[in-house]
Amino acid sequence: MERKNRLAPSILAADFKTLGSEVAAVTKAGAEYLHIDVMDGVFVPSISFGMPVISSIRSVTDCLFDVHLMIVEPEKYIADFAACGADSITVHAETARHLQRVLHDIKSRGLRAGVALNPATPLSVLDYVMPYLDMVLIMTVNPGYGGQAYIPEMTGKIRALRQKALELGMPLDIEVDGGINDRTLRTVLDAGANVCVAGSAVFSGDRAENVRKMRNVMAEYTEF
Ligand code: DX5
Ligand code: ZN
After folding, report:
1. For position 2, what pLDDT does the model report?
2. pTM (2 d.p.)
3. To test ligand 1's pocket by mutation, which of 197, 202, 211 has the most ligand atoms within 8 angstroms of CB?
4. Of 55, 59, 179, 140, whose CA–CA distance to 67 is shortest?
5. Ligand 1: which atom is nearest the Cα of residue 202?
6. Got the DSSP string for 95-141?
7. 173-177 β-sheet, strand order
């Protein structure tokens, strides 16, 4: 099975006063996805941004908009996020009361569907929704802020999920989010992740150079 590795810069760490040029810089440098963190101040302590910001940057790039909803009652907002330009919507298993229904809704709109798991949430919550999933987001920090340290116990969780996907013959995307830098990037790729979110590691210093360096590392890992 061919592995498609994708770098997903998280705009949470970008400079918002020049967000359009921040997005252009990382996508022109080769980032395939743009990771968009929506926070509601209820599920997670902080509040980030919502639909108007996403609509506004939609015209800057054709790259895949990977929307990570850290919000309660995500089912209420799927239509809105689809309308403002999301290509992929990921909901947290901890917030979706009817997880299968919301995944079915996302897919019925022609979008990619993902489930995110907090560090303490077991993989077994995925058992009965696997057919609806394009991606699983393994949170490698507790969601809510950028710039936190990678939680080492997540390496085994990534490995176990990749093993399960291989057993099922599923070309599942496994995304990791939180504390990904030059060093932890190799750890998660070794374990079987293939979509790597990076906030502070991309949006500090030379953005284009950061993207190129991380994509070069990712290119070394070509097979499951
Ligand atoms: C955390 C967010 C992340 C965050 C990652 O709640 O979901 O996407 O921006 O930031 P870094 O890469 O700085 O840990
Ligand atoms: Zn995220």
Report:
1. 58
2. 0.97
3. 197
4. 55
5. 12
6. T-TTHHHHHHHHHHTT-EEEEEE-TTS-GGGGTTTGGG-SEEEEESS
7. 6-9, 195-198, 173-177, 135-139, 112-117, 88-92, 64-70, 33-39
Rounded mean pLDDT, 173-185: 97
In 3-state terms, what secondary structure has residue 7? strand
Residue 63, CA atoms < 13 Å, CB-side half-sphere: 24
Residues 81/54, Cβ–Cβ less than 8 Å: yes
Burial 59-79 (b: 16+ CB within 10 A, else e): eebebbbbbbbbbbebbebbe
Nearest partner of 180 among 213, 141, 222, judged by Cα: 141
Average pLDDT, the chain: 97
Residue 15 annotated as catalytic: no
User: Per-residue confidence at 179, pLDDT binned at 50, 70, 90?
Assistant: very high
Residue 134 is a catalytic residue: no
Share of the chain above pLDDT 70, in %: 98
Q: Is the pLDDT of residue 1 over 60?
A: no
